[in-house]
Amino acid sequence: MPELFLIDESDNLTSLSEAPYDSEALLQSLLADHPALLGGDQMGQGSPRQWLFVKREAAVPDSEESNGRWSVDHLFLDQDAIPTFVEVKRASDSRIRREVVGQMLDYAANALRYWPVELIQSFLAS
Question: pTM for the complete prediction?
Fold first, then answer.
């Protein structure tokens, strides 16, 4: 991995080293406060995604009567108002990736069906 450096206002150079996050909660908080951490440059030539944080732990129902069976870690909107779900998983999480991908597909299918635009707007207002 290439080495990263930080140059501060006094022109001091500090070497940065990779370290695991202390908790999922810390990374979730950082993502909510700094959506640019998601990148976005990888999705679309010349038009990188820009993210608007909407809500943490957004409840995703699985029926009309449900208030929420699941909870997606983060809901963002991009500049085209396309919802983007972000789940934070530690490397030490023993679940297999296939399970996590299935979880995200459940979120996407049910949010599409049971989240009217007005609900997403209410998330932004709260």
Answer: 0.78
